[in-house]
C-alpha cells in the first residue's frame, strides 16, 4: 500500500512533469501523456508511465525523454521543495493497448455467439 506521503509526492511529480514536458520536448508529430508516477519509498527513484499518440512514435518519444531527463530533473529540482528529487525512469504504459485488444476480442466473441 502506498503511504500518504508517497501518494502526495507522486501527484506533485505527475503534475509538474505534465507541465514541463510541453516546454522541454519538441514533439511535433506526437502527443505524450503522463499516465502515472510510482516513486520508491526512499524517494530516490521514480517510474513515470506515459502513453504516446500515435503509438508508432513510442520509441522516438522514449529516446527524447531519456535525452532530456537530466534537464527535466533539474527543472523539477527547482520547482519541488524536496531534499531529494527522484531519478526519473520513463516507461511506456501498455495497459491501454492491452485493454483495446481485450475489447476487440470480446466484441469478436459476442458476434460469434450471435450467429
UniProtKB/TrEMBL annotation:
Its main location: cytoplasm. GO terms for molecular function: ribosomal small subunit binding. It comes from the Bacteria. Keywords: Cytoplasm, Ribosome biogenesis. GO terms for cellular component: cytosol. InterPro entries: KH_dom-like_a/b, RbfA, RbfA_dom_sf. Gene3D superfamilies: 3.30.300.20. It holds the Pfam family RBFA. One of its GO terms (biological process) is maturation of SSU-rRNA. It is found in: Cytoplasm. Transmembrane segments: none annotated. Belongs to the RbfA family. Monomer. Binds 30S ribosomal subunits, but not 50S ribosomal subunits or 70S ribosomes. One of several proteins that assist in the late maturation steps of the functional core of the 30S ribosomal subunit. Associates with free 30S ribosomal subunits (but not with 30S subunits that are part of 70S ribosomes or polysomes). Required for efficient processing of 16S rRNA. May interact with the 5'-terminal helix region of 16S rRNA. This is Ribosome-binding factor A. It comes from Candidatus Buchananbacteria bacterium CG10_big_fil_rev_8_21_14_0_10_42_9. The gene is rbfA.
